[in-house]
Amino acid sequence: xxxxxxxxxxxxxxxxxxxxxxxxxxxxxxxxxxxxxxxxxxxxxxxxxxxxxxxxxxxxxxxxxxxxxxxxxxxxxxxxxxxxxxxxxxxxxxxxxxxxxxxxxxxxxxxxxxxxxxxxxxxxxxxxxxxxxxxxxxxxxxxxxxxxxxxxxxxxxxxxxxxxxxxxxxxxxxxxxxxxxx
Length: 182
Description:
Layout: H1 3-14, H2 20-27, H3 31-43, E1 51-52, E2 59-67, H4 72-79, E3 85-88, E4 95-101, H5 104-115, E5 120-127, E6 170-171
Antiparallel strand pairs: 1-6, 2-4, 2-5, 3-4
Helix pairs in contact: 2-3
């Protein structure tokens, strides 16, 4: 990855549907250069998905999971069918599992299934109440603001940037950057 790849990623993070020609114009390179670099980043899984930040129904939660050390790989395998996304973590917990469920009852059932997996020692569940923290009114990531603040500018005395977190928006099926079959 070089500086140009990072600039392309920055543009795509702001607008995953930005046409290659627009990205090329902004970066003063050819459209073919952008297309080839995006194709390479998709192939090497630097870019794993293009997402759409859409209104969601249902319940979401992040479940922190402590496992028996020798059972972690089998716990991960069992979680693959239950979780939307999985993360290896450092600290008190071994795994973080993102859950998306139709409602709170389905969420509770899924958490019970996770707790029943052989090798799970402990769970700690964080239920998402809102998904607007750290986002400006345009939807772009910005500085943290107190609830009810409408301005995209930080409130006096708050200068901490929002932590980098995975974009958990819905995955788009109409990916303008998907390599085409030749």
